[in-house]
Amino acid sequence: MLMVLALLIPLAGGALLPLFRFRSVKGRGLYVEAVVLTATLLVWYLLTRRTDDLCTLWRMNDMLTLSFRVDGMSRVFAGLVSLLWPLASLYGFSYMTHEERPDSFFAFYTMSYAVTLAVALAANLFTLYVFYECLTLMTLPLVTHKQDVASIRAGRKYLYFSISGAAMAFMALVFVVYYGGGGPFTLGGVLEPARVMGHERLLQAVFLMAFVGFGTKAAIFPMYAWLPAASVAPTPVTALLHAVAVVNAGAFAVLRVIYYAFGAEFLYGSPAQTVALGLSCLTIVFGSAMAVREQHLKRRLAFSTVSNLSYMLMGAALMTPGGMTGSLSHLIFHGVMKITLFFCAGAILVCTGKAYVQDLRGYGRVMPFTLAVMTLAGSALVGVPPLCGFVSKWELLTAAAQSGMAMGIVAVATLIVSAILTAVYLFTVIVPAYFRPLNADQAALAGKRLDPGWMMKLPMGLLGLAMAGLGMWSGPLISFLRQLSAGGL
Description:
By secondary structure, this protein is mostly helical. 74% of the residues lie in helices and 2% in strands. It contains 21 helices and 2 strands.
């Protein structure tokens, strides 16, 4: 009952929001934050309880049920989402004073929280698939919120790619249900050996469809183009789309498919694994290279997300406990780092109207707080110790090196190349902001302070502290993830 309530509160709270016709930013903000925080408290109560009871909401037949359960994987993704969503909502209250139709925006924004939690808590592949597709429908109005030509075009691209991925994922769902009976997720997979025998090649091909289909939301190559296009949405949307809700839902779904549906043992050493690793490595380098050449700051961060999501997919595709640990750790740490970078980009856009990298020269003196947080987040994403990005990249590098496969060496080389490119596309923003003078057309800004108000600063500051804290005291979390990957949770 509590699990259903945790999902129903943000869903109903968002749906009812337009009926209240709030006349002030403060009233709307208090309502939304109260709804989100109430759901968050319920989620954390559920996550801290040591139970894996199955909550069945609806039964279509013996093999297709809408069911929810809190297991180790749920704790990781639901915990991340429930911590970041209240901060993103607080940031959005200030940001959306510059945008139209805030009631509609926060209605869909809050309902998206419920759907993302449903993905995190899904107990079987059918439930995961249903709410995974609901997430597309719920976030589409957020992508097209501005209702201009660029937003409509981005929304169409998002929808076309999502539908294509959904078709492939649905085919995989059919096969997993038929060969596995539609039971709840189980570490090691749900496929029944008696049914699988003689159909291994077919199921490996089906797995690749699932990998690309669910991986569409994780922007796997060649299904990545929707993600940079979606950067036209308001920054609170892109921060969640590119750091938490949609993209991490894609990586989370791939992890579920590999380790809890097909089973890593069934796929390990197969041609399907080689293809999955190859696509992941290709996407990592491609995304990093595109970020280097992109001059629009939010689009540069979007291509960075394309690259970093495939860090998670690569770790998952190693199909070892170490790979799973590295993938989950990067899912958490990248979410914190990337949402912070988008918050900084949004603050710059709102306070100065500047969106391009070359316009930010000298901004370390104009927006000292924002650029300090951006420097911290950028350094973490590059992998500078002792920040959290170093920890997850170390886990991934170690897992790839210890995999014993030729593709493991390719993965190590890919991660090193990507780290260099990451330093290029981030430090070429940060270094000129501190060591170059303001552009001639912005000389009048000298001596001014243009940092945003406290509703933007507070989430940015807290996330900055989180990046440092998660890096320096990552031991308990990594131990939890290793125990989960080994089947101890």
